[in-house]
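> tool_call: predict_assembly(chains=two)
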Amino acid sequence: MRPAIVFAILVQVLIMVLVLIPPLVVRATGTVVYLETEKMDPRALFRGDYVILGYKLAQGILTEEQQRDRRASTPVYVTMTTERPARFVAVGFERPEPTEGQACIVGRIRGWNGSVDFPQIAQYFVPEGTGGVLESARGANLLAKVAVAGDCRAVLLGLEPR
Amino acid sequence: MAKMDVREALTLWRQAGLLEPGKAEELSQYLERHAPAPGGGRALRIFAGFGAVLVGLGLILFVGSHWPGMSPIVRILTLFLAYGLVVAAAWTAEIRRYPRVAGAMWLLVSLVLGANIILFGQMFNLSLTFWQGPLLWMVGALALAYAVRSRLNAWLAVPLGLLALGWAGGGHGWFTDDQWEFLVSAEGLRALFAAIGLALLSIGLLAQRSAGWRFASGTWITWGALIVAAPLVLGTVDGRVLDWLFRMHPGLKHWLILVASAGLVTAALLRASLDDPKLSALLVGLAIVVLGLPLLGATGFRAHDYGLLFLFYPLAIFSASLLTVWLGVRAQQSGLINIGMGAAAVVVLIQYFSWSFRLLDRALAFVLGGVLLIVLALWIERKRRHLIEGFAP
């Protein structure tokens, strides 16, 4: 095989590995937290069905002062306990240093009601046709199992009954 | 004498020092464009390309629908195995000297790369507007395009770049329509498509100077011209449409795109082989229009408020379309000729329908519109054939 082709194939394989490594590292080394889900909304898409998740502990947590300082692209860090389900501890614009029994997830501000979204764990892909069943279990009855890294990145592992 | 294909012969001569690398590339490009294809070459390329796309789609759907029964490790291994098999098939077609099938298979390699990235994203529940996905896919497609001099892969890289640019830092990515928000919102790329097209056109002109990328220059120039032409031509409908198209709520991304576009035009003017001052003047004029319109849109300027001024706009775009045809003839790019003629025809049609319903009886307006369409089609077909036949052999 010509060296240029070998190099191009290696670049493509490296790209696939690069996509895989960050979530695999978070899954393998992250702290597991269980978050109460707030809402679900199944949609059929090219990638299969998925449900949209909101998280109860991230609703209405920003103070008025924090909302005044808001910038749409500014990351927001939410600290929570590792209990099952997790409890809200703190929210801020600086990356926190969670103590024992705590974890943090990075998100962004949603709307004007002081709520925070976690885009990286907002979508959960499910087998074709099963979105509706999950929708009926919406709300606090269903917990999201999330692996969280030290730098507040998160990967959604699955959904479990409370 | 041993039988070998042209590429091997060129490599042999290059290695023996009988041929400069640049000259070898030039000869290879020339043959690729002008060598008479064996019977059914074009049809073969279309069939093979279409087959590659179908296999790619089938793979995504097959693997996607069988996810529930597989563990994550098995899923990952399956995807890598599928990729390895397609690479092996492409390479086999290449060494067995089926160049058209090999070309389609190299495209399939990049399609499977994209499918794998999307499916990895699905596996780890990554957001729908996971912009790093198309960006990495584009890098992979470009690497392969360069390695096998694949115009199909160079073609694929353009929509992927647009998608990555559109999704980066924008959109919510929650609902299906959020994924396409960047196409229509003032915070997205709506006002910047022409500027992005200009940047792509400049990259295409710069690629003409590079032995390694010359194969892609025509593809990118055509893509660039198309992306520039679409919003400018659409804007001839009405002053309000033009205002909407170029209204922008700029953020850092928008300023970066405008600066990058201006930088690439400057680089093309300085480094590309623009031996004709008229061509440079055309590029400068185009840059002033496509970079100026979003800047005016950001300041709140409304073309609709200056009715008389807007009357000149369709005329300017019609002239620019004809200049594009001239550019296509000079560069021997049939894609540019098609875009120029298509744009000129659309401007004429838009103007006809804007005025005729006000001035004529409705039935007469339709009849004359139909006649105009037929005459335009005849003119385009005749002129296009004449211009393309005039290309150097």
